[in-house]
TrEMBL record:
Alphabetical UniProt keywords: Membrane, Transmembrane, Transmembrane helix
One Pfam short name: Transpeptidase
Residues that span the membrane, as ranges: 9-28
Penicillin-binding protein transpeptidase domain span: 227-529
Name this polypeptide is given: Penicillin-binding protein transpeptidase
Higher taxonomy: Bacteria, Bacillati, Bacillota, Clostridia, Thermoanaerobacterales
Length: 535
């Protein structure tokens, strides 16, 4: 009897332990690990397809993005979920404006999913296995700063190329489709979602100002300019805008590969003969090395002969007896060739290099560094070409703006920069990019004189830059670089700063094969200056 009672008691204990164990297990599964197993159950009904790799964005100085600004709607179809492919093909062909037979053929493929761009919206309910998603577009039809931002694809260009490893985060976006056990409907509350991997995405912060860049590009497009424009912050050297024309479509690179219209050339950092804007350098050297003073006078007969080579003023105009300030305002070639002879080519070349011509400033995009003649090439008539910015003298529009900025900054050069930092998605700086040290090019006294001379170009009744005057007060220098004397073709230049009293922006304008600087480039300077001063 005792053995029987013992066995019953033992069984009761065992059953109690098993019951408690079962209760605990159920509690553990349903309460403690409930979310985990629910997620696992759902995941068994997920179809996941990778659709794109997330790329870091490129921002302006105020964290306004230049990339991924717009979204485009796409329709996705999962062939294995479609019970009636012919019906699905008809729906898709109407929305995507495609041939129904071609769509049906793609739906019968072995692909995990098929993607189509939405052309027409439909209010009809889409069959199970077809859904819409809006995806970010790297570039849009209104993308700005294309020659700076560049593009990414089989080939790369611009900042997209330079910072490719940083921007290429490898973060993946996938379509997650949550279906029921029969694949006939979506799970309520889940349906189709965009899944993103947790990898870090880094971006690039530039010095560009989105609004200033837009204003500059609008002016160039409105005036159908073939050329470039650059805007610099005088106090920092930051490139606020850099635009080149003609432009190109970042989403259709193939269309320009055989073009001869120079769409891919960033003219803002390409070299061209500067013409008379180089007289800024001549005047700086003459004043800084005490070779010429403001009271010295020169006689202009309209032409000047050096060893049988005759240099002409524009249209052979004679300016009579004038000093350097007047000669600068009316852009007298004869006067500046004489000033160049007095100053000496060695001093002029040294001054040009101090201003940054032939210096690599380390910009993160391909940049030409300008070109100056050898000293031996400036002997005889060579000094004539040097003094009026012709011959072997080549500069970029960026360098032209840099020279104007240095003068406006009282002789101190802030080396131009384009990118300031690598940032995370919150805008926090992960790595700050250093800028080259500023340095003095000319004395403050010389800079003040040059600022006054550049002002005279705009306000003198005979000044070549009258059309550059703004309500804020402009200062600058025109340039008309001769391309073909026979065909009367010139590259038009204007480089200067605004406002005159408290300089803020340095702006250079270059118009390829345009006209004279005063006729074509100066009005563009005015238009851009008036627009950006609003900001």
């Amino acid at each position: 009897m005792e053995n029987r009672n013992y066995r019953i008691a033992f069984l009761r204990v065992v059953l109690s332990i098993l019951t408690l164990t079962l209760i605990f297990r159920l509690f553990y599964i349903q309460v403690i690990k409930g979310d985990f197993y629910s997620q696992k159950a759902v995941e068994q009904k997920i179809r996941s397809f990778k659709i794109l790799e997330r790329r870091g964005e490129i921002y302006d100085r105020n964290m306004i993005p230049f990339t991924d600004r717009e979204y485009k709607e796409y329709i996705f179809a999962i062939p294995k979920m479609l019970t009636d492919k012919e019906k699905a093909a008809k729906v898709i062909s109407e929305i995507a404006a495609l041939n129904c037979e071609d769509v049906l053929k793609s739906l019968k493929s072995a692909k995990d999913y098929v993607e189509y761009e939405v052309k027409f919206n439909s209010n009809n309910k889409l069959p199970i296995g077809i859904f819409k998603l809006a995806l970010p577009q790297r570039y849009s039809q209104n993308s700005l700063a294309r020659h700076v931002i560049g593009y990414v694809g089989e080939k790369k260009m611009g900042l997209e190329d330079t910072f490719n490893e940083i921007l290429n985060s490898k973060r993946e976006d996938s379509i997650a489709v949550f279906t029921d056990g029969n694949n006939t409907d979506y799970i309520k509350g889940l349906g189709v979602r965009l899944k993103t991997s947790g990898k870090e995405v880094l971006g690039v912060k530039t010095t560009l100002d989105y609004h200033i860049q837009k204003a500059v590009e609008n002016v160039l497009d409105k005036n159908m300019v073939d050329g470039a424009a650059v805007v610099l912050d005088i106090k920092t050297g930051d490139i606020l805008a850099m635009a080149s024309r003609p432009n190109f479509d970042q989403n259709n690179i193939q269309a320009y590969l055989n073009s001869s219209n120079e769409e891919f050339i960033n003219k803002a950092v390409s070299m061209y003969p500067p013409g008379s804007i180089f007289k800024i350098v001549i005047a700086a050297a003459a004043l800084e090395y005490n070779k010429v003073n403001l009271q010295d006078t020169f006689y202009c007969s309209g032409s000047y002969d050096i060893n049988g080579i005759v240099f002409h003023d524009y249209k052979g105009e004679s300016h009579g007896v004038i000093n350097m300030v007047k000669g600068f305002a009316v852009s007298c070639n004869t006067t500046f060739i004489k000033i160049g002879q007095i100053t000496g080519a060695k001093n002029i070349l040294e001054m040009a290099r101090k201003f940054g011509i032939e210096s690599d400033d380390g910009l993160p995009i391909p940049e030409r560094i300008g070109r100056l003649p050898k000293l031996s090439d400036t002997y005889g008539a060579g000094i004539g070409n040097l003094s009026i910015g012709q011959g072997d003298v080549l500069m970029t529009p960026l360098q032209a703006a840099d020279i104007a900025a240095t003068i406006a900054n009282n002789g101190v050069r802030n080396v131009p920069r384009l990118v300031t930092a690598i940032i995370d998605e919150e805008g926090k700086e992960i790595e700050k990019l250093s800028q080259k040290k500023s340095y003095r090019v000319i004395s403050e006294k010389t800079a003040i004189i040059l600022k006054g001379m550049m002002r005279e170009v705009v306000i003198d009744p005979e000044g070549t830059g009258k059309r550059a005057e703004t309500t804020y007060g402009s200062a600058g220098k025109t340039g008309s670089a001769e391309v073909s004397k026979e065909l009367n073709i010139y590259h038009a230049w204007f480089t200067g700063f605004v406002p005159f009293d408290k300089p803020k922006y340095a702006i250079s304008i270059f118009v390829k094969n345009g006209d004279t600087g005063g006729t074509k480039a100066a009005p563009l300077f005015k238009e851009i200056a008036e627009e950006i001063m609003k900001y």
